[in-house]
Design the sequence.
């Protein structure tokens, strides 16, 4: 079929893209059976994060809101100012992306849009990983987010052990202290870099005679091991913050983001009106612009007495201009592919509202 097409022409590019999609769809759920010849195949176990869900929208991905709730489509990320309640930055991610993906870049985009520096970034537990905290700390931005809860396995969890990151010691509930660190393999960071895993190891003799032995870990010839997180000091600081009065203020301020999320849902962002992340971003930008404009009108506009709205009124225009910038290539794509049938196509159903980040600003 390519013989009759001009190399590099729009028709040639569409044919190549269609061929690549078809190839991935045919092979994404099978793998080599391991017979040595390479001809025998078997069904692949598990689901790849890059699995194509729909040939009509190749950028759709499987995603999960929880273990029981799944969706096919995209995720919407947003940043909201807690004082003015204005949405200052938005983005659209693949449905399979982790919630914290691009969170720092989105906050930096918000700072560039408003011209104001973020005093703190408030996020839910999905953004509280050690790696994400480290990225925000390196950028000089405070990230306030809950730490993930540990499942109850019937034995003492890591929270029952006192880890001193300065002296590099670990004290167990029975009072024993160890500084013996052992290598426990590697794990891969988000950027692909390997990181050495370490664990504190208690002497087997001391653990065997401990009166709390049956409550600590399953019977084994070794002593109790406690993993040392690569960002252990940051995780401990976050846990201490969760027990402080400042955590109550955090929960109240995050309600602002929940209200903006509900407003975006009212404006129809739970259903994508276009194919692909790029066009869906245009829809989200327009919805955010409408949400901001209606909020400003409801509060009487950016008057001299309304300092938060007056300080962020430039963000309204920036979001609208970004939407217009995306509209031009979307319109040209429709003109080039007007003959493509769309009836019966599977529309991606985004699970929005994943970033849930609010920025607070000094001096307002």
Sequence:
């Amino acid at each position: 079929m390519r013989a009759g097409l001009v190399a590099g022409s729009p028709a040639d590019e569409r044919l190549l893209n269609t061929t690549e999609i078809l190839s991935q769809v045919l092979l994404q759920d099978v793998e080599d059976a391991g017979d040595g010849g390479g001809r025998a195949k078997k069904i692949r176990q598990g689901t790849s994060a890059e699995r194509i869900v729909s040939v009509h929208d190749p950028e759709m991905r499987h995603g999960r809101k929880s273990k029981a709730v799944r969706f096919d489509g995209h995720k919407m990320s947003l940043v909201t100012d807690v004082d003015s309640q204005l949405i200052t930055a938005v983005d659209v991610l693949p449905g399979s992306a982790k919630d914290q993906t691009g969170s720092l870049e989105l906050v930096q985009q918000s700072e560039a849009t408003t011209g104001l520096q973020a005093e703190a970034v408030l996020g839910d537990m999905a953004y509280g990983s050690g790696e994400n905290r480290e990225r925000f700390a390196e950028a000089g931005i405070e990230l306030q987010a809950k730490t993930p809860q540990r499942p109850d396995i019937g034995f003492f969890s890591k929270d029952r052990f006192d880890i001193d990151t300065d002296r590099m010691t670990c004290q167990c509930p029975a009072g024993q202290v160890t500084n013996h660190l052992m290598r426990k393999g590697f794990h891969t960071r988000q950027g692909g870099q390997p990181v050495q895993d370490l664990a504190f190891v208690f002497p087997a003799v001391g653990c065997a005679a401990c009166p709390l032995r049956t409550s600590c870990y399953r019977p084994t010839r070794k002593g109790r091991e406690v993993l040392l997180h690569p960002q252990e000091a940051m995780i401990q600081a976050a846990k201490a913050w969760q027990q402080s009065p400042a955590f109550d203020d955090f929960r109240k301020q995050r309600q602002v983001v929940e209200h903006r999320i509900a407003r975006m849902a009212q404006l129809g962002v739970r259903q994508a009106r276009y194919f692909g992340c790029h066009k869906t971003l245009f829809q989200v930008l327009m919805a955010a612009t409408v949400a901001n404009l209606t909020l400003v009108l409801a509060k009487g506009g950016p008057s001299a007495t309304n300092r938060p709205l007056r300080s962020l009124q430039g963000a309204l225009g920036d979001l609208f201009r970004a939407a217009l910038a995306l509209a031009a290539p979307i319109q040209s794509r429709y003109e080039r592919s007007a003959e493509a049938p769309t009836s019966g196509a599977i529309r991606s159903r985004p699970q929005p509202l994943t970033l849930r980040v609010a920025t607070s600003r000094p001096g307002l």
Summary: The longest strand covers residues 70-81.
